């Protein structure tokens, strides 16, 4: 498709998601596409979801793990949006019938007690605005074939968002050492990866601060009540129907996506 616009790119990515068809990256044709325009496409895509009845419930950080950043040749995460339609009730199998090539990653999730607005937010100020901390598991599903994309593409695609589960067990940030919080990822009961909270920017609160400051550059803030998915602690693990996936956090407890 020639002559891309923000709206045509948003429609293209939404159609790929709805029709469950993977597509080539926008930048294959739209070679001037930059990260700022990627965010405009992301905004247009989310506006369409909201117009269709979804409610924005928070933000996510993407590309937080070193493994992903090295693959992309970048050294900083990106921000994207989460909606109510993306949240799965605990104990729900992955909705494979509407996913292309899902992968799963464990995340520490914050629920904000207060608004957080950059610029100039540091990890301490960010953590002071957090109400509760939860174990989470995010299912990502790039609309791009074979997860092949450049940074502006993946920003436009809302950082490969698909769905996520958040544990109902809530912890106060004051009672946790989040940098040291360990998670073990298992597939069918067998460990495939492990990491600690330090894997996201050294501390999940530093990732939250980074998100607040990055969003400020777009004229946005993180409102009280928002969920914040602070980023994958390990590299993402490919999913397949018939397998169960667990993220066993040392303190925050276990979240599971049971076999479908
Ligand atoms: O949540 C994430 O880290 C996803 C970011 C987008 C890149 C990817 O699809 O791995
Ligand atoms: Mg993630």
UniProtKB/TrEMBL annotation:
Top-level division of the source organism's lineage: Bacteria
Pfam families: FAA_hydrolase
Keywords carried by this UniProt record: Hydrolase, Lyase
One Gene Ontology molecular-function label: hydrolase activity
Domain spans labelled Fumarylacetoacetase-like C-terminal: 100-256
PANTHER family assigned to the protein according to its UniProt record, in alphabetical order: 2-KETO-4-PENTENOATE HYDRATASE, ACID HYDRATASE
Protein's UniProt name: Fumarylacetoacetate hydrolase family protein
Native source organism of the sequence: Arthrobacter ginkgonis
Top-level taxonomy: Bacteria, Bacillati, Actinomycetota, Actinomycetes, Micrococcales
């Amino acid at each position: 498709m020639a002559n891309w616009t923000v709206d045509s790119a948003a429609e293209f990515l939404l159609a790929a998601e709805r029709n469950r068809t993977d597509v080539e990256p926008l930048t294959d044709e739209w070679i001037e596409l930059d990260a700022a325009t990627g965010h405009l496409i992301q905004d247009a895509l989310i506006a369409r979801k909201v117009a269709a009845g979804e409610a924005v419930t928070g933000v996510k950080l993407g590309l937080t793990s070193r493994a992903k950043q090295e693959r992309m040749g970048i050294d900083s995460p990106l921000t994207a949006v989460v909606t109510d339609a993306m949240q799965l009730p605990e104990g729900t199998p992955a909705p494979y019938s509407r996913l292309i090539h899902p992968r799963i990653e464990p995340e520490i999730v914050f629920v904000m007690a207060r608004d957080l607005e950059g610029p100039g937010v540091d990890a301490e100020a960010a953590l002071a605005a957090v109400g509760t901390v939860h174990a989470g598991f995010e299912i990502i599903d790039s609309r791009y074939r074979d997860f092949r994309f450049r940074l502006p593409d993946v920003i436009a695609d809302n950082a490969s968002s698909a769905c996520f589960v958040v544990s109902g067990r809530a912890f106060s940030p004051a009672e946790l050492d989040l940098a040291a919080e360990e998670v073990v990822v298992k597939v069918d009961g067998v460990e495939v990866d492990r990491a600690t909270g330090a894997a996201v920017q050294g501390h999940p609160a530093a990732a939250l601060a980074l998100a607040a400051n990055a969003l400020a550059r777009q004229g946005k803030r993180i409102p009280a009540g928002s969920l914040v998915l602070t980023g994958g602690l390990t590299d993402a693990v490919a999913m397949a129907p018939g397998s169960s996936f667990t993220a066993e956090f040392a303190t925050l407890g276990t979240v599971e996506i049971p076999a479908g």
